[in-house]
Automatic annotation (TrEMBL):
<dbReference type="Pfam" id="PF02602">
    <property type="entry name" value="HEM4"/>
</dbReference>
<dbReference type="InterPro" id="IPR036108">
    <property type="entry name" value="4pyrrol_syn_uPrphyn_synt_sf"/>
</dbReference>
<dbReference type="GO" id="GO:0033014">
    <property type="term" value="P:tetrapyrrole biosynthetic process"/>
</dbReference>
<feature type="domain" description="Tetrapyrrole biosynthesis uroporphyrinogen III synthase">
    <location>
        <begin position="39"/>
        <end position="283"/>
    </location>
</feature>
<dbReference type="InterPro" id="IPR003754">
    <property type="entry name" value="4pyrrol_synth_uPrphyn_synth"/>
</dbReference>
<dbReference type="GO" id="GO:0004852">
    <property type="term" value="F:uroporphyrinogen-III synthase activity"/>
</dbReference>
<protein>
    <recommendedName>
        <fullName>Tetrapyrrole biosynthesis uroporphyrinogen III synthase domain-containing protein</fullName>
    </recommendedName>
</protein>
Length: 301
């Protein structure tokens, strides 16, 4: 259990009348600062309880770099790259940084780089310039609905074209259905999806302090999940200390379980974790925080 400091995101002072709530969340480190920031904006306390370690490795970076290698980079035979996570973008960028020459030729058909919601902010000028000397050849695509299925719809019909899909190599957990379904949906739209394991998602053990906080008069007001893998990681960690989700619910009946979007909510439900709040705006973590506030305000009316 880690209470995030405010080095990157300064805390926002709360008014004397504000209810001080403690919000636990299970995101990997690369997302923790953003979610903590939005929690603090409400005057609440963020409690970071990561259940996953998500990061590229030398092996996964090498796997991505395979598509960039001269003299004839395999990426030149692709029409698009589709990212379903910020970590995938970071791994792709790290792999590009190790290559002397952009893998895409300056001339040719438009190459599409697709990403979800706020993740697209990482597809800036530096990223594009390392991908292709001619930035006009590259089009950044951000679907209006920030889900993998929304990404598929925005890409449209593939007509047999290849799309590179940086994805996680899941270790120690069962792979959630999100990426396999994404690849299958692309195939049904006429694309030829090629998966590359660009980073690893590993289970991160340890919930003893979180459980202790729950036992102390249910000191946690809400727990936020941003992916199905986080939910599975939490359940596995609870099992280590002899608990399951139903036992947690009995220990802490007023704690609200919130999911960042319907994909995460559906995955949690399949794992037996009932979700009380689902954000309808999931292009940003602000959506799930707003959904929590709406829930509590509605109950207070």
């Amino acid at each position: 259990m880690i209470v995030l400091n405010s080095h990157q995101y300064p805390p926002v002072p709360s008014s004397p009348a504000a209810t001080v709530r403690l919000i636990a969340f299970t995101t990997p480190q690369n997302y923790a600062g953003r979610l903590s920031h939005f929690i603090r904006l409400k005057g609440w306390g963020p409690l970071w309880c990561p259940t996953l370690a998500v990061e590229p490795t030398p092996q996964t970076i090498s796997a991505v770099q395979h598509f960039f290698l001269p003299p004839n980079p395999p990426l030149r035979y692709f029409s698009a790259v589709a990212f379903t996570s910020r970590t995938g973008i970071a791994a792709f960028a790290e792999a590009l940084a190790g290559i002397d020459k952009p893998p895409l030729a300056p001339d040719g058909e438009t190459f599409v780089v697709a990403a979800l919601g706020k993740d697209s902010e990482h597809l800036g000028e530096s990223f594009i310039s390392k991908l292709c000397k001619n930035p006009g050849r590259v089009r950044v695509l951000v679907p209006p609905v920030a889900t993998p299925s929304g990404l598929v719809e925005s890409l449209g019909t593939g007509r047999g074209k290849k799309v590179l899909c940086p994805a996680p190599l899941v270790i120690g957990l069962e792979e959630p259905p999100v990426v396999p379904k994404f690849l299958a949906d692309l195939g049904r739209k006429g694309w030829v999806p090629v998966r590359v394991n660009a980073y690893e998602t590993r289970w991160r053990s340890g919930v003893a302090e979180l459980v202790e906080m729950m036992e102390e008069e249910c000191g946690v007001d809400a727990i936020v999940f941003t992916s199905t893998a986080e939910v599975e990681g939490l359940l596995k960690s609870l099992g280590e200390v002899g608990l399951d989700w139903e036992m947690v619910r009995r220990m802490c009946p007023r704690m609200v379980a919130a999911a960042h979007g319907p994909v995460t909510a559906a995955g949690a439900e399949k794992l037996g974790v009932g979700i009380d709040v689902v954000s309808s705006r999931f292009d940003s973590f602000e959506g799930v925080v707003e959904a929590l506030e709406y829930r509590w305000n509605s109950y207070e009316c």
